[in-house]
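Troubleshooting entry. Yesterday's outputs looked truncated, so today I'm pasting the complete records for two proteins to confirm everything comes through intact. If either block looks cut off, that's the bug. Protein one:
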Amino acid sequence: MFEIANRLAELPPYLFARIDRIKQEEVAKGRKLIALGIGDPDLPTPDFIIERLVAAARKPANHQYPSYWGMSEFRQAVARWYASRFEVKLDPEKEVLALIGSKEGIAHLPLAFVNPGEATLVPDPGYPVYHAATLFAGGVPLHFPLLEKNGFLPDFAELERLVKSGPRVRLLFLNYPNNPTSASATLEFFREVVAFAKKHQLIVCHDNAYSEIFFDGKAQPSFLQVPGAKDIGCEFHSLSKTFNMTGWRVGFLVGNARVVDGLAQIKTNVDSGVFNACQEAGIAALDHYEGFCSELRATYQERRDILVPALNAMGLRCTPPEATFYAWARLPSGLKSEDFVLNLIRNQGIVSTPGNGFGSAGEGYVRFTLCSDISVLKQVAKILRASV
């Protein structure tokens, strides 16, 4: 029998295995489940993006290996988008890097900047890749809690304690608008982050994948809008959620030139870049984002306003999110996240995600997605209200 490497053995147990088994049992009984667990847009990629892909795919030059950094035209489009959307100026040649989805870049970044035994600061609850990427680089993930009483923002006193706790800390992972809590952050918060990072000489890695899914006109900021942010940090973004392109795997890293170059060096050794036709489609998306994104936000807001009241009516505590397509609901006291999710599958046929799947601080919460049609969410609302 072959033994797996220690880095895999160090990963936390796969919490969702039991949930997957229950789902399979229910499906085997002939039951049709309503999936509100995975954050994968159900809406199609816009036609104008697909049309650009089709035309680009017919170009023979696009069938060869792409640039590790990404097409110059794509990086220029990213820079134009940041200037238009956030009023952030970027050098497309040194401060923009194309990624095979932002997840790939996040997973590889610690390889460039974290030595074995050094540490990263990882939010809890949080996107599991931050933890796994640190382990794969031989690093030590130091988890800081995101608590409801703090608006699911980190406590800087706790971050200070962790920085002084032992191993040298190299990276701080942040994600706002946040998955899974759907919390938002302000520019004032990011100013504190910049000051903290400069004090401790940390690289800030901000995951901004949900910036364009916001509601009630509350546009979400970029970390790089803060003066000095580019001195110590970088920001990941993806076309996945913004343009319903999760399967296309097109993302990018922007910010500090040294950080961008460090990740580029890793990428030259482990991948061959993003398919050029997908990058051309990405250019079309970024250059014509406003009209499509406003319609997308209206759709998700309508869905939010159906699901959230139903969650509260059944006894959960769910504040309407200002951004993301997630509803983060607090369970009544004494209920465990996994137990609630399993019972919801068995009794109501609705699939959600237990909060502790994102870290121990997520215990007592459950995450629902808005990635289902209005008619489905109305059905869910009816089922939930009837279950009271």
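Protein two, checking that the full record survives here as well:
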Amino acid sequence: MAVGVFDSGLGGLTVYAAVADRLPETAFVYYGDNAHAPYGVRDAEDIFNLTCAGVERLWAEGCDLVILACNTASAAALKRMQETWVPKDKRVLGVFVPMIEALTERKWGDNTPPREVAVKHVALFATPATVASRAFQRELAYRAIGVDVEAQPCGGVVDAIEAGDEILAEALVKSHVEALKRRMPHPEAAILGCTHYPLMQATFQAALGPQVTVYSQANLVAESLADYLTRRPEFAGPGTVSKFLTTGDPASVSAHATQFLRRPIRFEAA
């Protein structure tokens, strides 16, 4: 048994790297649905069906706990999956929770009424599907009041990162930040709401300015998972050897993943 990490492509490797570093005694199985990436331009039904198929494949690998290391899947599919599809002996968790905990400085199990928080103006950078779902705003509203969230759909950024075109990715990030700042000139915090975006965190920070706190997910998810497995160790399982699966071409995905993480990664066909 291992912990599953699901993503539509390579972006979830930022989460995998963080959780593997944080939990070196834990085995992980990473599943990248590269054949159908990116999810950010798909409709909710398509995202739900593709995510369910990937999670089922991870269950077949013995991963009773799966992390959706994909904001689009977390936004568009997770709630429906948890309410209608996931069996009682399995767990599927998303990547929004740790970030909202950090932003609101309250634990997920804290069900007290929403209250004011220090940050009032938040910029959200995410895929078009994540922005359209309004999932981040909905979950934030359960816990905080008086927070203005301005969301910017960042079309093209994921494709540029997956293709290894850093120059194009940087240009697109700067363009999207400029577009958001025309609507919200002075954000106090910025949420990088896609697991690809940590690779461009320095570009986001430079475009936003040093006065903006940039929240990236990978390390927040790693700490949250470590806490979860402390409370539910039965979901960790034995072993420390990780495995990487893809619906795309394993050789091509392996080459891109190695460049992406700057460490050797070998994918197998899912």
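Both blocks look complete. Sanity check on protein two: The mean pLDDT is 93.
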